[in-house]
Amino acid sequence: EVQLVESGGGLVQPGRSLRLSCTASGFTFGDYAMSWVRQAPGKGLEWVGFIRSKAYGGTTEYAASVKGRFTISRDDSKSIAYLQMNSLKTEDTAVYYCTRLTYYYDSSGRLRGDAFDIWGQGTMVTVSS
Amino acid sequence: DIQMTQSPSSLSASVGDRVTITCRASQSISSYLNWYQQKPGKAPKLLIYAASSLQSGVPSRFSGSGSGTDFTLTISSLQPEDFATYYCQQSYSGYTFGQGTKLEIK
Known about the structure:
The structure holds 2 protein chains of 2 kinds. Chain A is built from no helices and 11 strands. By secondary structure, chain A is mainly β. Chain B has strands spanning 4-7, 10-13, 19-25, 33-38, 45-49, 53-54, 62-67, 70-75, 85-90, 96-97, 101-105. By secondary structure, chain B is an all-beta fold. Chain B is 0% helix and 50% strand. Chain B contains no helices and 11 strands. The A-B interface holds A 35, 37, 44-47, 50, 61, 63-64, 97, 104, 112-117, 119-122 and B 1, 31-34, 36, 38, 43-46, 49-51, 53, 55, 87, 89, 91, 94-100.
């Protein structure tokens, strides 16, 4: 069964750090880009960032709201993606979802799009004093 | 940044109804548009990718259409399990979600 399981959430004070983990199973983790999406209580979905597979350089991209504070990394040998969150703010309070990012191609090999096709159950992060 | 606007924000409908949700992008995004369903307390689930392709395992009563800036998600005959919140999301430049459409039972 294809599965993502997040861990590491909890209560943290503003300005402190927290690291979330996302453990994957049921697919070849190293072949996929991995992303994080968050949802503040009662609000909509917000993309946080993603990391490409090693085949595409393993590089990262981030939303403007977290750039410079959050870092995504991966350990393909353990099938784990990480979200390191520094200088946390109260507005970072949210459920954080780990997602698999899949690219879709047509029969000619041309990219048709990409989507978050597998989601973890989410882990709650509360930033409060 | 590309903004995504869904309408309506909420919708009441009955089992068996045909329902359409629209999503508009602030600039052309070709067909780089996905739809997700989220039930309370659960993670979102991918329904439609690349504007009109049905994700594996998703019932055929769900369909998507559109390109450029205007997109629609249609549920042909509402089932009890379809009452949820639906989000569109663009992947043309970064990733942005619409604000969501809450589909409630009439």
